[in-house]
Design goal:
It is a single chain. This protein is an alpha/beta fold and 441 residues long. The protein is 37% helix and 14% strand. The protein is built from 13 helices and 13 strands. The protein has helices at residues 47-59, 71-74, 83-98, 126-142, 165-179, 182-188, 213-238, 272-275, 296-312, 339-351, 389-401, 418-423, 427-437; strands spanning 5-7, 14-16, 22-23, 25-30, 64-70, 102-109, 149-156, 246-250, 282-285, 319-324, 330-332, 335-337, 359-362. The strands form 3 sheets. The chain has an 8-stranded parallel barrel, surrounded by 4 helices. Strands 1-2-3 form a 3-stranded antiparallel sheet, with no helix packed on it. Strands 11-12 form a two-stranded antiparallel ribbon. Helix 4 (126-142) packs parallel to helix 7 (213-238).
């Protein structure tokens, strides 16, 4: 497999840097469905099964597979990278190359257990940040010349918690840097309490307080934590690897105009607009959480929500719908859904984002019998290895989509009132966003 994949000069497509050919990313999130839930891909690594799975993926047009690394198998201690884990990854890369499938490798996560060095805070704590820098320095350096690797993905669905001891300490340092003295803070914070100083300023409650400057500052501070977490890893990678693009897999409530429960803390604080300058392309995940997409009205609402999310992520760089999917072919939450039900929504997710994204990775390769969520019946293949209706549609779409350059839609991306979005009720603001972009027409 020759040539690294780079962002095209048009800022929307990808291109093989050696051949000059356009590369349209179209694939899956992969793990061995026979390794439990959460999947223990590396602890239960079976080369023969992986070979079978990659052959099946290639058969339906997959050209990229996203794979999750884990702390337990790759970095059991902060200063130790496991040779056993790297050797298994070497084998995975060899298999992927054989079948012409490039890999997006996602940074070490908790699927096989959480390490002690993530304490006291996975995102704000110095031990965790230092461990990540070491991980990426070693791993990116080892694979810097590996063309089968498409990109590095820093982590799956990061979110900044509302508060922790590490967050509290850094909050006061952030305030000192912004306001310099208590008097300037008092002028901005009408809620500044008697005898309160910058060093003792309390973290606001996680509840709507429209226009409140303290709450707005705290949301900006949470974004600062996310940006600093991202920057340190990007710097560690770029110090040793200039060949592979870098991204991060954003959860769908990184889109701040829609928050579950309308609660400020449900915003993930990983803002694609502020992270994009550090990344080569933006990835976001989406599932139809607004209700059963089998019902026409709810299908429309979910589609508009999907289009709003991916459109918000556009900053002049490619946007990848890195996770999307639904279920069908079995009973989930007490209700049986057909394979056609799954295929209809997933096909719609692809077609409704043509012009809004630069690539698609469906969740997931195969139905997973031990899963406790939609992954149980969310695959291209069923547990017997038979291609499902969605798998057939996926294959048909592959031939339609991957053969030519993608064209960016002219949908607008209007500016938003940050203080209103980060502190207030976003429901009306979201509806206005749909109007301003023309998505609801």
């Amino acid at each position: 497999m020759k040539g690294f994949i780079k962002v095209h000069e048009d800022g929307w497509n990808f291109v093989n840097a050696e051949t000059g050919e356009i590369f349209v990313l179209y694939g899956v999130n992969y793990f061995d469905p026979e390794t439990g839930w959460a999947p223990k891909l590396w602890r239960m690594f079976d080369k023969n099964r992986v070979v079978e799975h990659f052959q099946k993926m290639a058969d339906v047009g997959v050209n990229v597979a996203r794979i999750f690394m884990t702390t337990a198998s790759f970095q059991p201690q902060a200063d130790v990278i496991s040779n056993d884990g790297l050797e298994k990854l070497d084998t995975m890369i060899e298999i992927a190359e054989k079948y012409g499938i490039r890999l997006i490798l996602t940074g070490p996560d908790h699927w096989e257990g959480s390490p002690d060095y993530w304490k006291p805070d996975k995102y704000a704590g110095i031990p965790a940040l230092s461990a990540l820098e070491y991980f990426w320095h070693e791993v990116a350096d080892r694979y810097k010349d590996e063309t089968t690797i498409f990109a590095w993905d820093l982590l799956n669905e990061p979110e900044i918690a509302w508060k922790s001891e590490a967050m509290s300490q850094k909050w006061h340092l952030w305030l000192l840097n912004k306001y310099k003295d208590t008097s300037s803070l008092k002028n901005s914070w009408r809620s500044f309490r008697e005898n309160e100083t910058i060093e003792t300023a309390e973290i606001p409650e996680d509840q709507i307080n429209a226009g409140n400057q303290r709450l707005y500052d705290y949301q900006l501070f949470r974004e600062h934590i996310a940006c600093e977490w991202t920057r340190r890893q990007v710097d560690a990678i770029s110090a040793v690897d200039k060949n592979h693009p870098v991204t991060v897999g954003l959860i769908q409530w990184s889109f701040p105009l829609f928050k579950a429960g309308n609660q400020p803390g449900r915003y993930a604080a990983f803002n694609p607009l502020k992270l994009a300058p550090m990344l080569d392309f933006v990835c976001v995940h989406f599932y139809p959480i607004l209700g059963d997409p089998g019902e026409p009205e709810l299908a429309l609402k979910n589609t508009q929500y999907l289009q709003a999310v991916v459109n918000y992520c556009y900053t002049g760089k490619p946007v990848i719908l890195e996770e999307f999917g639904w279920h069908g072919g079995g009973e989930w939450e007490g209700k049986y859904r057909t394979e056609a039900y799954q295929s209809d929504w997933n096909t719609n997710a692809v077609k409704s984002t043509l012009g809004l994204v630069s690539g698609w990775l469906v969740w997931a390769y195969s139905d997973t019998p031990t899963s406790t969520d939609i992954t149980k019946y969310g695959g291209l293949y069923n547990v017997s290895g038979q291609l499902k209706e969605w798998g057939k549609s996926f294959k048909s779409l592959a031939s339609e989509i991957t053969g030519s350059k993608l064209i960016r839609s002219n949908i607008k991306n209007p500016k938003i009132d940050e203080i209103a979005v980060f502190t207030g009720d976003v429901r009306e603001l979201y509806e206005q966003y749909l109007v301003d972009t023309g998505i609801n027409h």
